[in-house]
Amino acid sequence: MNVFVLFLAFAVAWVVTRLSLPVLARYTGKYLLDAPGGLKHHAAAVPVLGGCGIFIGMTAALVCIRLTTNFPSGTLHSLRGIIWGGLIIFTMGLLDDLRKPQGLPVWIKLLLQGLATACLIYYGILVRFIEIPWISFPITFLWVVGLTNAFNLLDILDGLCTTQAMVCTLGLAVIALPSEFIYVNFAALALLGAGAAFLPFNFSVSHKLFLGDSGSNLLGFLIAALCLGTGYSQTSSWGFLAPLLIVAVPLADVAFVSVARVLQGKNPLKGSDDHAALRLKKTGWSSGRVVGVFAAVAVGCNLLGLAVTRCTPLEVSAIFLGVALGAVWTGYILLKRGGCHAR
Predict the structure, then answer these.
(1) Are 21 and 198 contacting, i.e. CB atoms less than 8 angstroms apart?
(2) Closest CA to 254 of 110, 145, 139
(3) At 37, is the secondary structure helix, strand, or coil?
């Protein structure tokens, strides 16, 4: 693996995203605004251009390394699936942002998410530990659609969704280094660079930008795709379970919110303020502290994911048992606390 190419993927994505966001904010920001109201308590309307910048930056990075690198066989084929599928998801999120506050109907979102997943499957990006198509295809669909929406739901605090995506992409890049599916390295580093360039705008006071549905859905889709695109079982037959730990925080948040809403008699498919991060804010935690703790937990889970690719079945079972018990205990503590408000 050429380390310079990996650095180039990160650097190009960072530079292009960093330069494109101010231009987008100046000329298109007034058309893509997230106004306060309902569960949203930010003071004034904020442009939702993070997804635009991330998509432009990552695509530019992949095109750049395509023109400067001799790809091994199959790599470019897989990258086409990610780009085309990502374009569908980005477009879906962008239309959803433009139609705020109503957004797109759920059935249209699911249709487009299914189409994007079909692009991945067509280009060979799918669940690999099951070789029977009529089983692997539906599991791939559930995995991609589930994670796409999980990251969308996680976009409830400045920096939360983006930092989770950055931790996941870094973990994927590390795990994929010895793998033959090296397109994961290129795409993961490009996504990491784009996310790193956007993050300061998300935290900014005078030039604040939101990720938007175009960004959160895109991050979830790309990470779901990259999780399917690397080898986990070179040394451990149970390594295929590693992606569950790589994306453990978004999955745990979805599970927690769903349980909290059901216990309160609410529709788990509708937005509310039941997220773990928002409950922590109610206890007096600052947004920065919440984001930092979530990132630290994600780093720990990614390290466990790396360990799973090298552990015996007994050790893998112990890791998952420990993580499950920790998640249940944390969820129980948080469920005892009252609701809180978004942003």
Answers:
(1) yes
(2) 145
(3) strand
Q: Cβ distance 189 to 197 under 8 Å?
A: no
- The strand pairing partners of 47, in sequence order, are 33
Parse the chain into domains and list their residue ranges.
3-335
Identify the CA nearest to 51 among candidates 224, 243, 201, 252: 201
Q: How far apart are CA 126 and CA 133, in angstroms?
A: 10
- Per-residue pLDDT reduced to its tens digit, 308-339: 988 888 999 999 999 999 999 988 888 876 54
Rounded distance between C-alpha atoms, residue 297 and residue 214, angstroms: 25
Distance from C-alpha of 180 to C-alpha of 44, rounded to nearest angstrom: 48
**Ranked by mean pLDDT, which of 70-84, 121-135, 161-175 comes out on top?**
161-175
* Distance (Å, whole) CA 197 – CA 176: 23
Residue 243, classed as helix, strand or coil, is helix
**Would you say 186 and 62 are in contact if contact means Cβ atoms under 8 Å apart?**
yes
Instruction: Report the distance separating Cα 120 and Cα 61, nearest Å.
Output: 20
What digits encode the pLDDT tens for the residues 222-247?
Answer: 999 999 987 776 666 788 889 999 99
What separation in angstroms does the CA of 66 have from each of 20, 75, 173? 21, 10, 18
Q: What is the largest CA-CA distance in the chain?
A: 57
For residue 267, which phi and psi values (nearest 5 degrees)? Answer: -75, 115
Run of H or E including 150: helix 133-154
Under 8 Å CB-to-CB from 339, ≥6 apart: which residues? 272, 273, 274, 278, 279, 282
Task: State the pTM of this model.
Answer: 0.91
What is the C-alpha separation between 65 and 101, in angstroms, rounded? 38
Six-digit token string for 59: 């695509």
- Tell me the two tokens of residue 263: 């216990």
Q: 73: which 2 tokens?
A: 């066989």
Helices assigned H by DSSP within 155-227: 160-176, 183-203, 212-227
